[in-house]
Amino acid sequence: MKRKLFLTGLFCLVMLFANAQQYDFPSPVSFSPGLSGASDTTVWSLFSNPSGICDVGHIAAGCGYHNSFLIEALSSQTVFVVVPLSLFHGGIAYSRFGNELFNQQHFSVSMARDIAPCLKMGVRFRYLIRTIQNTEGAEVFTVDAGFSFDVSDDVVLSVYSRNPAGQSLKDDFSEQPLPSFLALACNVKLSPVFNITADLSHRNDLSRQLYGFMMSARVHSLVELRSSVSAKPVRLGFGASVWWEGFELTLAASHHDRLGLSSTAGIVWHLPAKRGGGK
């Protein structure tokens, strides 16, 4: 009986978590600080707008850890690799959310390509498996897509659609909606070292709009800092990236006005040699 009560409480916690976050590993560059991820053009776009991996010019492999609201059961881990090929840029990722009693596993394959000098498009195929101890598992296949358009040398518009079909995880007893949204972002480079991003997304699964704004500054040739605010609910976020000898360390944290602090950390190894059609 105690185990059943614990599982019920954990499931309710996860449902509450769903209203604030997503189950996949959040990009520490964009989603973790509070944005939708539409504007992401780093290796971490493997977990946000897939068109962003077009800007990854070398083979990159990495791992990451995310914790939500200081609750161990609401943590996720990931490993991934991105490879620029002659025909397209590709990436594969594995992430796991939860613990032994309740968890989700994500397997994803992303592909992106430069369609024109100013247009990039990408798509991600994702296979999810949910496991609840002593119950039958549930699984689902989803598709995400996005593109980015260079309006000028300093202005980029991006569109990102996550799970547009509104897929959900179902079993004999319940149906668990998965995050589904359409996002639009505008990134403006005010100077070679300073960027601002405005972000708007509509959560189909929650029937509401989310707004975000982020500033990023290259304070040193090897250090970039970020700060953001998003609503509603109100979230304040900050982050930093540090590069050294082919390695990139990225940290991010955000504070939810009701649920508290979440944090993300990731490390990426950028191989020095170019492959295929890498930039």
UniProtKB/TrEMBL annotation:
Keywords for this protein: Signal
Top-level taxon of origin: Bacteria
Signal sequence region: 1-20
Name by which UniProt lists this protein: Outer membrane beta-barrel porin/alpha-amylase
Organism, as annotated: Marinilabilia salmonicolor
